[in-house]
Amino acid sequence: MGTSSDHSPMVHQSWRGIQAIIIWFILLPIIGVSGGAKTRHFKWEVEYMFWSPDCVENVVMGINGEFPGPTIRAKAGDTVDVELTNKLSTEGVVIHWHGIRQFGTPWADGTASISQCVINPGETFHYRFKVDRAGTYFYHGHFGMQRSAGLYGSLIVEVGEEEREPFHYDGEFNLLLSDWWHQSVHNQEVGLSSNPFRWIGEPQTLLINGRGQYNCSMAANFRTPESSSSSSNTQYSQCKFRGNEQCAPHILRVNPNKTYRLRVASTTALASLNLAIGNHKMVVVEADGNYLQPFSVDDLDIYSGESYSVLITTDQDPSKNYWLSVGVRGRLPETPPGLAILNYKPTSASKLPISPPPVTPRWNDYGHSKAFSKKIFALMGSSKPPKSYERRIILLNTQNKINGYTKWAINNVSLALPPTPYLGSIKYGLKNAFDRNSPPENFDENYDVMSPPTNPNSTSGSGVYLLSFNTTVDVILQNANALSANVSEIHPWHLHGHDFWVLGYGEGKFSVKDEKKLNLKNPPLRNTAVIFPYGWTALRFVADNPGVWAFHCHIEPHLHMGMGVVFAEGVHHLNNIPNEALTCGLTGKMFLSKNN
Amino acid sequence: MGTSSDHSPMVHQSWRGIQAIIIWFILLPIIGVSGGAKTRHFKWEVEYMFWSPDCVENVVMGINGEFPGPTIRAKAGDTVDVELTNKLSTEGVVIHWHGIRQFGTPWADGTASISQCVINPGETFHYRFKVDRAGTYFYHGHFGMQRSAGLYGSLIVEVGEEEREPFHYDGEFNLLLSDWWHQSVHNQEVGLSSNPFRWIGEPQTLLINGRGQYNCSMAANFRTPESSSSSSNTQYSQCKFRGNEQCAPHILRVNPNKTYRLRVASTTALASLNLAIGNHKMVVVEADGNYLQPFSVDDLDIYSGESYSVLITTDQDPSKNYWLSVGVRGRLPETPPGLAILNYKPTSASKLPISPPPVTPRWNDYGHSKAFSKKIFALMGSSKPPKSYERRIILLNTQNKINGYTKWAINNVSLALPPTPYLGSIKYGLKNAFDRNSPPENFDENYDVMSPPTNPNSTSGSGVYLLSFNTTVDVILQNANALSANVSEIHPWHLHGHDFWVLGYGEGKFSVKDEKKLNLKNPPLRNTAVIFPYGWTALRFVADNPGVWAFHCHIEPHLHMGMGVVFAEGVHHLNNIPNEALTCGLTGKMFLSKNN
Known about the structure:
Two copies of one chain form a homodimer.
Chain A: H1 14-27, E1 32-34, E2 37-51, E3 58-63, E4 72-75, E5 79-86, E6 95-98, E7 124-130, E8 135-141, E9 152-158, E10 171-180, H2 185-192, E11 205-208, E12 216-217, E13 237-238, E14 251-254, E15 259-266, E16 272-277, E17 282-287, E18 290-297, E19 299-302, E20 307-313, E21 321-329, E22 338-344, H3 366-373, E23 391-402, E24 405-410, E25 413-415, H4 422-427, E26 459-461, E27 465-467, E28 472-478, E29 491-495, E30 500-507, E31 525-526, E32 528-531, E33 535-542, E34 547-553, H5 556-560, E35 564-569, H6 585-594
Parallel strand pairs in A: 2-5, 4-9, 10-15, 12-13, 14-22, 23-28, 25-26, 27-35
Antiparallel strand pairs in A: 1-2, 2-3, 5-7, 6-8, 8-9, 10-11, 15-20, 16-19, 16-21, 17-18, 17-20, 21-22, 23-24, 28-33, 29-32, 29-34, 30-31, 30-33, 34-35
Cofactor (chains A, B): Cu cation
GO molecular function (chains A, B): copper ion binding; L-ascorbate oxidase activity
Protein name (chains A, B): L-ascorbate oxidase
C-alpha cells in the first residue's frame, strides 16, 4: 500500500505546497513517540477569511489559512492533540471529531452545550484524544451552524504498525464532500429563526475537497437527463482554469491497472449525495470506520455524516480521463453536479473526459437508495450486537410550530440546548441547568405518520435520556409526514460517542411484528444512519462510554431547528474532566461561588 | 416642560405603539421606588433580525425586536437595572452605557476584555448602575464591531425631582444618529483584518433614529451645492412612504412659537456629522451630560461618541415644514444626507418643505469645525479642573503596518485586547493575562507628525497605563500623518468611567509653549473629544473612579484596528466585583483551579 500524490500539472498550488513543507518541518520535532503509538500535535487557529470555494468570493471559516481545514493523518492507537485557538472576532467555537468515540475523553467531543464550554475569542483549548481504530473520519464545527460556514476537514486514521487492512490497494485519495451557499450562515440562521420562516433553499454549489464551480461547468458540453432543468450542464459556460484557483477541480491522478482506495466523507449541511465515476465500478469496503462485507456498485449514496471507503481499479483506457460526479439525492435538485477528474497517467489532466459525467439517479428514486442501504453488512467476523435490548426508545420525527416558529421535534419536544454544558451540569448535579424531566420514550400510538400533524404545536425542551451504564439500548427512528401534505424528508441521524448496529429499515409505522425482521446476524456498525421518507430505522448500541452524547439529524438547519436528543451514561465514572471544559455558565458560577 | 409626541399622520407605527403600551403596563409594577429615586428594570433580549433601516432589507442586531434598541428614560439618581439575555447563535455580547461613569460599578461598563466577560449565547447578565446626572446618553455594543451591526439605543436621564435644568423648553425630541452599511459587519471585520487590507468604505446611508433612505431621497427635487456629485439629491428618485415603513423618516411634530430641546447623539461607526434645520438656529446647551455656556449656531458638528442638546424656537411660518438634514464631515462624502422633517402643527407632515434641505459645510472645511469646537465652554459655575497635572501622557496617533496588516497604533503600540478582562486580572494580580510593561508615555521627539511614518512597522500590545488613584492626569492626543502622504484624519476619542476637561486644541506638534494657552478657566467637561488633522488636543481628568477604563477612538473600525489604550486606577479598592462578570479566561480558570 502506498499513498499516491494528488498533484497534477493542472493544479499548481505552489504556495500551499511550500506552506505544507514548512509546516511539515515545524511539526517533525513535535510528533512525540511512545512505544508504537505517537502523539500527533497540531496547532490550529480558526478564523474567517476571504475564499472562492466555487469561484465566487465569499467569507469562509478556515483553519491556519486553509479551507477545508488541514487533513489530520494518524495511525490507530495514536493520540491526537489539537491546540485550538479561536481567532474569530465575536463568536465562540468548538470542533467535533466525527466518528471518534472519545472513550475516556468525552470532554473532547467538541459539542457546544453538551461536552464543553465554547472556546471564546482569543482563548485556546486542547483537544487530546486517542484514535483507537483505523478508518475514514472528519471533523467539523458543532456550534450554531459553523459547519455550514466551512469549519471542517478530514481525519484519516491508518491501521497501526502491527495491523493490516482486510483489502489491498496501491494508493488512496481523500474526497471530502460538502455543499455551499452564497448567503452567509449568519443570515441563514436568522431566517431559520424568523417568523415567517425563511428556508435556506438548495445549495449553490457542491464542493469536493472544498472546490466547486458556480455558474459554469467543467462538463458544459454534455446534457444530463435529470428532470430538473437546472441540473443540465448545457446551460453553463465552460469553466476555464489555470490550475491554481481555489475553485480549480480536484484531480485524482492514477497509474493504469492499479487499485485505489477512495475515502469519501460527506459533511454537507443539507444535501444527500450520490457519487459515481465514469466507466469505473466501486467496491464498498468501509463505512464510518467499520469494515464492510465488500460489495460492488455503480454509484454510491452518501448522506451527511457518513463516510465510506471504496476501491476502484484503473482498468480503463489510459489515454482518456474520466469524470467523478456528485449529485443531489432526496430533494429536487437545483444544484449542478460537483465534478472531479480521474486522470490516468501519463495523460494530461487538462484533457477533459470525452464521455459525459455519470448521471445521478433520479432524486426521488428512493428504491435505489434503499437498495443501496440494504446491501451494507458488516465484514464477516465483525462484532455482533447483543441478542436483546434492555431499553427501547422510539423517536418520532416531526416538523412542528412553536409560537408560530417552524421547528423539528422528537416525540413533540424540539431540542433547545442550554448554555451550561450537560457534561458539567450532570457531573455536578446542578439543578437548574436543564429540564430535569426525561423526554418521552415513545409517541401516541394513534399518531398518523402518513399525514401532516393534526395539531402541529410543539414545545421546546432540554431534557436528557439518562441511560443506565452498560445497558443495551434500541432506538427506533420513526419518520413521519412534515407540515406540508405528501412531504416526508430524509434525515441522517448521527450518534456521538458510539457506533450503533443498524438492525433494519422499514416502511410506515414501526410495529412489534417488525422486530422479527431485524438483522442481528451481520448488521453494520455505523455512527450515522438515515431514515427514509415515511419509514423507520432500528438501531442498537451499548451505553458503555461514560459521557453525554448528542444524537441528532446531521442536516445542519434541522439540528438548528431542534432535531436532536441528548443521551447521558455513566457520568459519575468521570473524575478527570479538565477545568477549562467547564469554565462557563452555571458550572463556572458554581466554582466561583465556592470561593467567595 | 412637557414631552411632545413624535406621532404624526405620516408615521402610523401602530404595532410598535401597541407594543409600547403593553410593555408600559408590564413595566409599571416593576419600577421599584426608594425615596425619590427609583430602580428601573428592563428585560432585554439581543438578537439578529431582518430589518430595513434604509428601505433595503438587511440583518440588524436588535433588542426585544426593536431597532434601534428601546430608549431608556430615567431620572438623575435612579438605578437602571437591565437584565440582558443573549439570544444570538454563536456570538457573545456586552452593552456599554456611553457617558455613564459607573462610579462604584466598573463591572457594569460593558466593555469586552476590559470590564467583564462577554455574555455567551443563552446567558443573562444584570447591568445595574446609577445614573447620577441628568443628560443625553446612549448605549451600544462594545465587542467586536457589534455597534456597527445596529446594537445601540438612547439613554435619557432627566433631572431629579428636586432639580431643574438651567434652561427652559416646552417639549423635546430625541435624535440618535448613525451610519449604515449594506455589507455585513462580519465581512467588514474580515476585510479590516485581511492582508491585503480591505477598507469598509463610506456608509451607504445615514440614519436618524434608525431610519434612512437608500437610493431615493425625500428631497429629490433640490440640488445641493456640495462638491461631491453623489451628495446631490437630484440623481435620486423621490421616496414614497405610507408612513409605517421601517425606513419612513422621523417626524418632529411641533407647535408654533414654542421652544424644543433636541437631544442629539451620534453613534456612527465612522462618519463625522453636521446637523442643521432649515430656517432655524440652534442654541447649544448641553454636551455629553454637561451643561454648556449657551451659544447659537446655524449648524452643529457632532462626532461619533458625542451628544448635544440644542434648543430651537418654532418661530417660522407654521404653514410650512422644514428639513432637518445631517451630512458627512471630514471625509469626502459618498453618502447622501440623512433627512427628517420638522412639522409645524397643524400642517400635514406629508407636506414636504418647499425650501431645500440645509447644506452641510464643505467636508474638508476644518476651519468651520474648529471654530465650532472652540465655541464650547462650560456653563458658568461648573466644576473647574485642578490647576496642575500630576502625570502627563502624550499619545501619538499613527497608522502602521504589523506583518503586512494595516493597523492604528498609539505611541507605536496597536491595542490587542486580551481574552481575560483586565478588571479581574488586575484585581487578582494574574501574571499572564496581559503585557505587564506599561505602554510608552510619549513618542520620539524627532517624529515628524506632518509626514507618513519613515518606518511604518509597529507592534501590538495589551499593556495598561496604571494611574495612581485620585491623581490628576493630562493626556495630549497628538495627531499625525497616516500611511499615505497628505492624509491626516479626524479621530473622536472617548474615555470610559470619566469626563475630562477639554483644555485646548492646537496645530502641529504639541510643545511646552502650548501649555500656556490651555484653558483652565471654563473648559467644557466631555467624555469624547476630537483631534483634528495634524493637530493636538489637550485633556485633563482626575483618576478618581476605581476600575479599568478604555480610552479609544470611537470610530468602530479604528478601534478594531488597535486605536485605543487602557487606563486602570484604584482597582484594589474594589471588593464587590460580581462573580458573573469574571467567569471566563484566566480569572475563570483561577477560581476553578482553587477548587480542584
